[in-house]
Amino acid sequence: MSNPKRIAFQGEPGAFSHQAIKRWFPGAEAVAHPTFEEAFAAVRSGECDLGMIPVENSLAGRVADVHHLLPHSGLKIIGERFLPIEMNLMVNKGAKLSDIKVAFSHPMALMQCRNSLRALNILPEVFHDTAGSARALKDSGAMDRAAIAPEVAAELYGLEIIRPNLEDARHNTTRFLVLTGEQSVVDPAPEVPCVTTFVFRVRSIPAALYKALGGFATNSVNMTKLESYSENGSFSVTFFYADVEARPSDRALQLAMEELKFFATDVEILGVYPQDEFRRK
Hints:
Keywords: Amino-acid biosynthesis, Aromatic amino acid biosynthesis, Lyase, Phenylalanine biosynthesis. The chain has 3 domains: about 5-85 and about 170-180, Periplasmic binding protein-like II (D-Maltodextrin-Binding Protein, domain 2); about 90-165, Periplasmic binding protein-like II (D-Maltodextrin-Binding Protein, domain 2); about 195-280, Alpha-Beta Plaits, CATH 3.30.70.260. Helix content is about 30%, strand content about 30%. It contains 9 helices and 15 strands. It has helices at about 15-25, 35-45, 65-70, 105-110, 115-120, 130-140, 150-155, 210-220, 250-265; strands spanning about 5-10, 30-35, 50-55, 60, 75-85, 90, 100-105, 125, 145-150, 160-165, 175-180, 195-200, 225-230, 240-245, 265-275. The strands form 3 sheets. Strands 1, 2, 3, 4, 5 and 11 form a 6-stranded mixed sheet that branches. Strands 8-7-9-6-10 form a 5-stranded mixed sheet. α8 packs antiparallel against α9 (about 250-265). The longest helix is centred in the C-terminal third of the chain and has 13 residues, at about 250-265.
């Protein structure tokens, strides 16, 4: 993760992923891509050194596309970062809060600010992207409309923030994964607390998931995330995405994974990486 030159993200310039890159890799060029698939491809091809990809939000839940794309992607997770999400009400320079009738942004951003907007008597309007709403506001020149977007979008498009921290919940946080296309990734030093992320598919037998997870309980391996998803339109067999606070070289995790494989198939480790300090707060 040292000195990457180009980092891929999904979204428009000024998105929260862009802000995450700016915060943790200030010397790198943030490269925008319209879709997660294109961002993944840029990292896989070597066009970008790393990817900064959101995987879950404390209010909105998981980013579903990422769970489908990571397995068999050829990419490895080498880090995690937690970004507190701060929604900013921004306007074209010279506009006053009392003049604003409508604020537009991504539906998730509007949902996270609905009480604040109601208190300001501002109507919400759906737009496809947070950063895109800031760009569209700048292009329109409107003085009675506002956008809700990250701080970096205001800087990028020359807008003025008239109400920072517009979000209703102050604990709103997004977890990002740092991805690399390098296959010879060295595990963190032995003394560093780690997360191992992996996927698996349970066998189609009664109580398969219960039995598959038994080894994690009996070996005291802390599983912090377990999510199910279907693939290829099938509802008969389910895939699972999991995080555990351990590393594959730990004897406890070795035993748990051995037991898992009795009741699951297609087990794939997606990454072994240091726990972010935010996780331990």
